[in-house]
Amino acid sequence: MPTRFAAVLMFCLTSGVLLMESAAAEPKARPKILDERPCGPDSICGPLRYLIYQGCAGADFRDACRRHDACYDCIGSDRHACDRRFLEEMLAECPKSKHPAMARLRARWFYLGVKFGGGGAWRSAQELAKKLAGK
C-alpha cells in the first residue's frame, strides 16, 4: 500500500496534478511564477512549482497550458473539450522534442491529470468568471 501511495504522489507531482483544489474567495493578483511556469495547478506557487515539467527537451507546453487555463475561464466552457484541445496542442509540440516519445508520454500525463483531477479547477474557474461578470 505505501508503494501505491508513493506512485500516486509521484504521478501527481510530475504531471502537475494536485488532488485537492482550493477555491479563491476573491480574485487576487497571480504570482509571477504562474506566468513563467503556467503548467500545473495554481495552488502550487512556491519552489515546488519548479518540479513541474513545462515540456520536454524542446517541446514547450507552456502556451498549451495558458490556453487551457483560458478555456476553463470562459463562462459555459465545455471542460472535456478544453481538455481534449489541451492534449492535441501538447501532442503538436512533441515532434520538436529531442525525445518525442517522452514528450508524448508527458503530454498524456498532463491530459490524464486534468481529465481526472481538473474538475475542481474548472468549477472554481467557472464560479470566478461568473462572479467577475456579475452573473
Helices, strands, pairings?
Elements: H1 2-15, H2 32-36, E1 55-56, E2 59-60, H3 62-73, H4 79-93, H5 100-117, H6 119-133
Brief write-up:
The chain has 135 residues and is mainly α. The chain contains 6 helices and 2 strands. Strand 1 and strand 2 form a beta hairpin.
Would you kindly provide a written description of the structure presented here, covering whatever features stand out?
There is one protein chain. This protein has about 140 residues and is mainly α. It is built from six helices and two strands; from the N terminus they run ααββαααα. A two-stranded antiparallel ribbon has the order 1-2. α1 (about 1-15) crosses α5, α3 packs antiparallel against α4 and α4 packs antiparallel against α5 (about 100-115). The N and C termini lie far apart (about 45 Å).
Which key phrases capture this entry?
135 residues, mainly alpha, two-stranded antiparallel sheet, 59% helix, globular
- Helix % is 55-70%
Distance, first to last CA: 46 Å
- How many DSSP E strands? 2
The tally of domains stands at 1
Q: How confident is the prediction overall: mean pLDDT? A: 80
Using the alpha-carbon principal axes, give the shape: globular
User: How large a portion of the residues is in β-strands, by DSSP E?
Assistant: under 5%
Stretches where pLDDT is under 50 for at least 5 consecutive residues are: 1-25
Tell me the series of helices and strands, N- to C-terminal: HHEEHHHH
Q: Report the sheet with the most strands, covering strand number, pairing sense and barrel closure.
A: 2 strands, antiparallel
Question: What's the total helix number?
Answer: 6
Structural class designation: mainly alpha
The Rg value, from CA coordinates, equals 15 Å
Strand order of the largest sheet: 1-2
